[in-house]
Here is the input.
Amino acid sequence: MSECGRRLIVVSNRLPEPGAAGGGGLVTALEPVLRAYRGLWIGLDGGHTQRWIPPPAQVGYRLLPLALRERDVELYYHGLANRTLWPLCHSLLGRTEIRRDFWAAYQRVNRKFAGCLLGEAGPGDLVWVHDYHLMLVPAMLRERGFSGPVGFFLHIPFPPWELFRVLPWREALLEGLLGADVVAFQTRAYWESFLESVRRLLGCPVEGAEIHWRGRQVRVRWAPISIDTAYFEGLAGSAQTRQRVRRLRAGLNGYRVVLGVDRLDYTKGIPERLAAVELLLERHPEYHQRLAFIQVAVPSRTGLRHYRLLKRQIERMVGRINGRFCEGSWTPVRYLYRALPQEVLAAYYALADVALVTPLRDGMNLVAKEYVACRPEGGGGVLVLSEFAGAAEELEGALRVNPHDVCGVAEALHQALSLGAAEQERRVGAMKRHLRARDVRRWAAALLAELEAQRPRRRPVEEAPLKLGGQALEQVVPLG
Here is the structure.
């Protein structure tokens, strides 16, 4: 417990790696307030039954691991979460699997999270639940009598209501989210889709950004998550990164560099991107022996068949493109199938003349923001960004493309490589200013302020307001 008798309790599918450099935007944003109020983070242990959990005295807050039976991991995580909700929310209906055993496991696991929460949370605690794995938890808390403030943030897209209605459990999922006091989404479009789903599928009255549900008012917001901008700028500007950039550049013989960085996932549009690079080389032979496309693909969900097939497809495409265009020592596509440390990625961001970020659909896409933050002052750079990434609503200096239009992406890539230095700097400068003004700490503060506002207006004298960055959450202006 904190000195004022209440805490922030964060709930997510997996526990974070606390204190790790570049350990993720959510961890960066929430660690300060979790430390200040000796908070609690609940999540799965990631299957590492021997994982060492640091004591609260070391990290400043408590980590509470949950363990699941292997069968529940298969049906809940690999099943409903990633073979049903993940493709559906990314508007890929053809990949969506509807199975009742998936749903039964999803209910069981959500009930386990809710039970753990109820055993830990006091009436004064703030509870913040994250992402599509745990959409039933807010309502389960209410059903079992929890009356404190509950927030929910969806990190992935929320689909149009016509797609969401495909789910046999659509009403239960919506009702699960409406157990929260504040439900937030990455973009206005996802926010609108959720409100429309509530209207049409639950017949529930909606007034502006508020939903009247079972005698309660639920606030619905959109708030695009961001990055720790200062961290990435500092990382990119370090002597170690500059030295690494020089070594990378020396190994590339002065080629222009186009960079893609993604988890290996079918939503990221990597095959379509490779097809665009191939078309660029076909239509613009002036780039032969002058251009290197580097694709970093981070292994993901390797146990699922779709992901194994995608890996083989990408490898075949890389081999074909290199076989078709390779000349002497020049290999146009360099494919890195591995996770890179954040400091190495920062060097690639600083090196690349163009970042090609073309997901078919993405909740936000922080790679786009990391690339911009890592660009050296006066060094320009061009971001080619899918219009279907949440980041496209914010980063107006990007060249926006339809990732399904291979010809359009190829021509945008040619435009990016031809853009003058002054125009590059104007675009990058505007995006950098945006990221500095709206970094991940501001995102967290704004949403926690919304949640804090759900408390009764009359607070006991001894109960001090939660703060983030020295500022009371009530004083933070909400994002939208």
Notes: The domain at 8-226+439-475 is CATH 3.40.50.2000 (Rossmann fold). The radius of gyration is 23 Å.
